[in-house]
Amino acid sequence: MKNKVLPVPDINTPNRPNVLPIRAIFGLKEKSGEDWSEIRAIQLAAISVNPMTRTGVILGIGALTALALMNLVAVPVLVGWVLLNTAFALWMHQGTKPSQSPVRKSITSAEFGKIHAYALMGGIVWVSAFAAILASGQPADKVLLGLLSLQSATMVLMVALVISLSTLPSVAILFVSMVSLASSVSFLMVGQPLLALGAIGIAAPLCLGVMRHCRAQLGSQLSEGRLRDKTETVSLLLREFEDSGADWLWQTDTARCAIHVSPRFAYALGKDAREVEGEPILKLIAGEAWETGNYPNELHEFAERLKRREAFSNLTIPVKMNGQQRWWELSASPRINETGAFLGFRGVGSDVTEQCQSQEKISHLARFDTLTGLPNRLQVNESLSAALAYAEQWGSRCAFMMIDLDRFKQVNDTLGHPVGDRLLAQVSKRLQALMSANELCGRLGGDEFAVVLRDANDSTHINNLARSIITSLSRAYEVDQHTIYIGASVGSAVGPRDGRSVEMLMRSADLALYRSKEDGRGVHNSYQPQLHAIAEERRLMEIELRHALDKDEFHLVYQPVVDAMDGTLTGFEALMRWTNEKYGNVSPVKFIPLAEEARLIVAMGEWALRRACFDAVQWPSQVKVAVNVSADQLMSANFITSVVSALRDSGLPAQRLELEVTESLFLRDGGMAVQVLDQVLALGIKLSLDDFGTGYSSLGYLRKTRFNTIKVDRSFVTGAAKGVDECLAIIRAVVAMADSLKMSTTAEGVETEEELALIRELGCKKIQGYLFGRPMTFADTLPMFEPNLSHDRRDLYRKVELGA
């Protein structure tokens, strides 16, 4: 049978009592949850200390005892006893020699039992000496004298063993008890009860003393062992911390000079550790700024924390080392000794340059258009707001210009969106070349641009700039060996005369722009009060729009959404179209904003949702339908009721419906929107974040609700296809983030095989774009689900588009 090995204890987990119980000291059976293997290990180590001395004491006392009993006990018996004592001493010496193996924290039960076997055998050896005296047949006085001599020898031996085996009270008590009992019985047999009582009286204090001493010594050694283990653990962790990652340790003295400089800290400074030792920590971290005295604000804060002896955490400081701009993140706390005296600081640092640069890129993308590099709508709004505030404060004027490209839609329709995107990039360069320090040019979206003039007191300057813009943008463009001619229409408004808020001023400029389009495009109009006629016309269109539902003028078209890897059809996005007898086929770009402004979008959205559910239920069960939901519709009081009603009446399972929202939803009433979206998710409906990255910082909104899908905006896809590093990095980051959040990703606007291959490589799960199908009627979707489909799904989609 194998010996049971007691487990090595965890120094951090045992819950030890202040006073060790008897069962722990004597090695009795442990209760549930107890682990005394540490004590066993200490006891094992104790018996291995000075085995030569212990063996010499046993042999020496044995020899003296033999000399004292030489004339009392027969020589053969005495020689036999001496040999027995010698054999016992050598056996114990051999079994208790120090081990060559590393220090152990546990012992086997057999080893613990063997220690007690030594005590038992030693007791037998010395009990046999008392028996030999009693059996010698000598006169009573000689026997008594022999017993007294033996009692003296055993007392010395008992005291020596009690001292050397103080951490093993069970072993010492076993030996003392056996010898004392033999001595007491021997004295009783020769008629000496007082001496017998004295033998017991000597044993009792020895046993009590060894118990007390054992508890104290074991407790002390346990505490020292745990402290040593913790110190080793901390040292190991510090070494591991220093040997891994880009982090480092740093420490200062009371004068705020670096001490105990770690190799990694010195490496981060680009110096040798000996050069750094004793240098002021501020000088080291300031780097090249130390000579110029031009310190960043973060370094001043760092210095103040050190001066006030305050702990700090995750303090990011820009540093310049060897001509390179870096960012360090530092954390530290003051060191205080047991008397409360300040010893300096100890902390950690890490190089977070890559993280800071990534954050700068994300921040840049949040405020700049990815396609053109111009400020986006968010930054344009902020600049216009600041210009209006300045004009109100100082009684001056600012201006806002809206620019719309003429015939740009035809470029996209005839030459494709990639050519259109490259054309927009050239337009942005021409606009930037016309801007001075007084103007800011940005892209509002699509083919709409804007200019904010901070100082517009000179009305002539506004007209001259507008003419320059029209002239410059109307010159020929060379894009992919195509010569392209487009134009530009400009509308302007002056603030605060034409509007005291950003919205009013932009609306006034928009009305002026509409007038420019009505005048044949390629011209500039400033806002005039009579431009309300334009608004009147829009009002008439609004009236037609209000009756469109009753006249059944709306219909839905569906654009396929496919699996990125194999092109399998996973669903459709439902898109609303309006055909009016007066205005004809009205573009969604026109009637959707008008519907939102007229608050008709809620009823139109409900109709689209119900129509899409009734159509989708006729598709196979694995095909989903995505429906766009406007902010007004989502925030309406009966939105959830309308969704439940559409699902119930159509019979469409909730998991086959996906609602698409844009990040503009959160800019209006993020808290309320999140609550409604949570209710949608609770119904089992999927959520998609549409138009990702256009105009606003979309990354922040992913924290506010649990989207199932992120739709990567087409501008990122085209930018990545052109090798724009930022677009590639953002798509990779979005895919990685979506995967970690268990979200899917849909790439919009995939139109070429090259874009398809890139999107697959980047890891997007689904694709939507002209490569796989343009928007089609419901009737045109049905042939896709026939059993004899062509193997190449893209061929099928194209055939459906062409009416084949």
Short summary:
The protein is an alpha/beta fold and 804 residues long.
What is the share of helical residues?
A: 40-55%
Q: Tally of extended strands?
A: 20
Spatial arrangement of strands, main beta sheet: 12-13-15-16-17-18-19-20
Characterize the largest beta sheet: strand count, sense, and whether it forms a barrel. Answer: 8 strands, mixed, barrel
Number of helices: 30
Mean pLDDT: 81
Pick out the low-confidence regions: 1-18, 798-804
Key structural traits:
804 residues, alpha/beta, five-stranded mixed β-sheet, 20 strands, disordered C terminus
Walk me through what this model shows.
Helix 6 (140-164) runs parallel beside helix 8 (193-243) and helix 26 packs across helix 27. The protein has an 8-stranded mixed barrel with strand order 12-13-15-16-17-18-19-20, surrounded by 5 helices. It is α/β, with parallel strands linked by helices and 804 residues long.
SSE diagram, text form:
Blueprint: H1 22-25, H2 37-47, H3 51-68, H4 75-95, H5 109-134, H6 140-164, H7 169-189, H8 193-243, E1 247-251, H9 263-269, H10 273-276, H11 281-286, H12 289-292, H13 297-308, E2 312-321, E3 324-336, E4 342-351, H14 353-367, H15 377-394, E5 398-406, H16 408-415, H17 417-434, E6 439-445, E7 448-453, H18 459-474, E8 477-479, E9 482-484, E10 487-495, H19 502-518, E11 524-526, H20 532-548, E12 554-563, E13 569-580, E14 584-586, H21 588-597, H22 601-616, E15 624-628, H23 631-635, H24 639-650, E16 657-662, H25 664-682, E17 686-692, E18 709-712, H26 714-721, H27 725-740, E19 744-748, H28 753-762, E20 766-768, H29 778-781, H30 793-801
Helix pairs in contact: 3-4, 3-6, 4-5, 5-6, 5-7, 6-7, 6-8, 7-8, 16-17, 17-18, 22-24, 26-27, 26-28
